[in-house]
Amino acid sequence: MKPIQVGLLGAGVVGSGTFTVLKRNQEEIRRRAGREIRISHVADLDTARARALVGDAAEVVADARAVIARPEIDVIVELIGGTGIAKTLVLEAIEAGKHVVTANKALLAVHGTEIFAAARDKGVVVAFEAAVAGGIPIIKALREGLTANRIEWIAGIINGTTNFILSEMRAKGIDFATALAEAQRLGYAEADPSFDINGTDAAHKATIVSAIAFGVPVQFAKAHVEGIAELQAADIAYAEQLGYRIKLLAITRRRDATAGAPAGIELRVHPTLVPTERLIANVEGAMNAVLVQGDAVGTTLYYGKGAGAEPTASAVIADLVDLARLASADPDHRVPHLAFQPAAMQDLAVLSIDEVVTSFYLRLQVADVAGVLARVTGILAEHDISIDALLQRPAAIGGHEGAARTDVIILTHDTVEGRMTKAIAAMQALPTVLAKIVRIRKEDLG
């Protein structure tokens, strides 16, 4: 059987990893795919870098469109990134009748609906295992392995940079800026780490897994996104004392209507307290992990490297092997891009953050005078918010100069977020509250 001919767009970190792993494991991959998978053309603006990578094994050009136009190319692998020229090239490859493999989570989170529709119209596949959690096969697990289940929720550590920073802050008792500098020194964080630390990268990935889990369109614009730059070492230490770790979690959950909260889908990324006994709370460094709760299988955990040249290349090549097996299959018999048949997709509402139901960690820096706790707990009671645990400690940071002050840490039971927002506003207005109240969501994940 003739080889699958691949055009590679982008010979950077992941592109070079893909070429290297495919070359190193060519025989093993051929035995699994049933035919050779050959990168025959590479497009990269840095042609010298690309030629140094592939040697005489592939033709190298600077113009990606020249690769797409080659009639012998069966699959285009897009590893350029971003939502600009990458989108144009992917749509042009689809229009030319080429299958596409991409690791571009931003592209699919923002433009996935348009891209998947174009692929269906042309009878080609867009494969994207590498777009979420690097080498962890979470897309295949959701689309195929768990297809018998009604997925109830997904919670994941899907950004290694932020997990490394939080691990350093906890283990060494250092502040965010110091931990970020260390992550940059070691190469875990970019010179401009904004997409990682502000939660955008994790939200792109969460948008994709939410669509697959619940059979809804990709809708990144509706995700609630918070990063970790405002996290303080004091809160990480207090969480530890209370039996929790703070992780940047991507969470998507199907919600039935409850008292005070409508039905819909939660789609959110933010720092989260997780009980230390949960396996995901003990994922450290730059590693990723994804928890999936299904009604039949219960809780499953997927753990591994979420980034890097070869872990991501592993996922890219897995998609190429699938295409080698399925390229000639009737398009109607392929696994749908988002797991559900296109006609069966639902347009379920994505809940606003005020409609989300969760529990909370609150830290209030208050004047150390009589009656403060009674006023604070009274406000929570007025808003129908019950307290799970309370801790009082000498204030760690900040406050009014010369004032006797203390930190009051409160864990609550589940409540609607909008109710909590109103309660915090009332507490913040108290003259005995001396600093901005810290609010961090808490998830049991049991």
Strand-helix topology:
Blueprint: E1 4-9, H1 13-24, H2 26-33, E2 37-43, H3 47-54, E3 59-61, H4 64-68, E4 75-78, H5 85-95, E5 99-102, H6 105-122, E6 126-127, H7 138-145, E7 151-157, H8 160-172, H9 176-185, H10 194-197, H11 200-214, E8 224-225, H12 233-241, E9 244-255, E10 264-275, E11 287-294, E12 298-305, H13 309-326, E13 357-367, H14 372-382, E14 387-394, E15 405-412, E16 415-416, H15 417-428, E17 438-442
Parallel strand pairs: 1-2, 1-4, 2-3, 4-5, 5-6, 8-10, 10-17
Antiparallel strand pairs: 7-9, 7-11, 9-10, 11-12, 13-15, 13-16, 13-17, 14-15
Helix pairs in contact: 1-13, 2-13, 5-6, 6-11, 8-9, 14-15
Summary of the model, kept short:
With 446 residues, the protein is an alpha/beta fold. The chain contains 15 helices and 17 strands.
Structure report:
The structure is a single chain. α14 (372-382) packs antiparallel against α15 (417-428). The chain has 15 helices and 17 strands. It has three domains: 4-127, NAD(P)-binding Rossmann-like Domain (Rossmann fold), CATH 3.40.50; 139-305, Dihydrodipicolinate Reductase, domain 2 (2-Layer Sandwich); 357-442, ACT domain (Alpha-Beta Plaits), CATH 3.30.70.260. The chain has 446 residues and is α/β, with parallel strands linked by helices. It has helices at residues 13-24, 26-33, 47-54, 64-68, 85-95, 105-122, 138-145, 160-172, 176-185, 194-197, 200-214, 233-241, 309-326, 372-382, 417-428, and strands at residues 4-9, 37-43, 59-61, 75-78, 99-102, 126-127, 151-157, 224-225, 244-255, 264-275, 287-294, 298-305, 357-367, 387-394, 405-412, 415-416, 438-442.
